[in-house]
Amino acid sequence: MASALLSRRPHRPPPALTLWEEVALPLNRVHEICGPARRTLALRLAARAGAPLIWIAPGRGADMPDACGMAALMDPGEVLFVTAARPADLLWTMEEALKSGAAPVVVAELAEPPGMTPVRRLHLAAEAGAETGLSMPLGLLLTPGTGGAPGIETRWHCAPAHAPGRDAWRLERLRARMLPPKVWRLENDRLMPEGMAAQSPALQEVAPPVPARDVPTPGA
After folding, report:
1. Cα–Cα–Cα angle for 139, 143, 146, rounded to 5 degrees
2. Taking a C-beta distance cutoff of 8 angstroms, is the pair 56, 109 a contact?
3. Rounded CA gap, 201 and 204, in Å?
4. Are 136 and 105 in contact (CB under 8 A)?
5. Which parts of the chain fold into alpha helices (H)?
6. Are the beta carbons of 36 and 218 closer than 8 angstroms?
7. How many helices (H) and strands (E) does the chain have?
8. Which partner from 31, 62, 101, 201 sits 20 to 30 angstroms from 123, CA to CA?
9. Beta-strand pair 16-20/105-109
10. Cα angle value 184/190/195 (rounded, 5°)
11. How many CA atoms lie within 13 A of 88 on its CB side?
12. What are the strands, taking DSSP E only, across 73-188?
């Protein structure tokens, strides 16, 4: 054990789901996405991971993602929607879904960030799912405002930054265990550090219209 700790061999980074070079979410862990375009970022990640996607939302008056809006990013037929009556039931459902390893991504929409204990249980469930299931599951907690769930692996904020004739988003890494906070502008599927976007000729060109902007509803 001591020789392993003192070894100069570089440690391998954990397996991760990568959207862009600097946007990588370690697998077998739970992450938080907040902001008005949190659903859009969650769908981008799920589309990269592949089907099926398990999407859990509150039961009463659930404001589910619009299928037409989802279609621009992922086939709605590959999404299993689940509703839960109480916040505790919602977290239990997510825990069981992660533990099963049946889906590469499990999304849960919450009215407020969960506490430390539920987050720890979700991490353990994701690790168990990687050992017993068909995938290395990734858990995504969608929370309003700027989030704030303790103990999550990473926290991201996504918001629309559209202009006439062009769609864009502001993506911010609020928290990561080994990386500092950072802000980007996403346009035409190109990610640029904020402040450089206006200087980039590629981003100065007007992007073609996108079939769907943010996934409709306030949680988009």
Report:
1. 120
2. yes
3. 5
4. no
5. 2-6, 38-49, 67-70, 87-100, 116-132, 201-204
6. yes
7. 6, 11
8. 62
9. unpaired
10. 35
11. 0
12. 79-84, 105-109, 138-143, 154-160, 168-176, 182-187
| Cβ proximity of 172 and 182 under 8 Å | yes
Q: Which sign, positive or negative, has the C-alpha torsion 4, 123, 151, 36?
A: positive
Token readout for 43 is 């769908």
pLDDT in tens, 118-138: 999 999 999 999 998 788 999
Residue 219 — left, alpha, or beta (φ > 0 → left; ψ -120 to 50 → alpha)?
A: alpha
pLDDT the model gives residue 12 = 67
What does DSSP say about strands 30-34 and 138-143: parallel, antiparallel, or unpaired? parallel
pTM of structure: 0.84
**pLDDT tens digit string along 181-219?**
999 999 998 999 986 544 433 333 333 333 334 554 544
Rounded to whole angstroms, the Cα distance separating 215 from 70 reads: 6
Parallel, antiparallel, or unpaired: how do β-strands 168-176 and 53-58 relate? unpaired
Confidence category of residue 7, pLDDT binned at 50, 70, 90: low
Q: Tell me what the pLDDT averaged over the chain comes to.
A: 85
Query: What does the pLDDT look like over 153-182, one tens digit per residue?
Result: 999 999 999 999 999 999 999 999 889 999
pLDDT at 29 (0 to 100):
97
Identify the pLDDT of residue 6: 52
Asked whether the beta carbons of 127 and 133 are under 8 A apart, the reply is: no
The H-assigned helical ranges of 9-167 are 38-49, 67-70, 87-100, 116-132
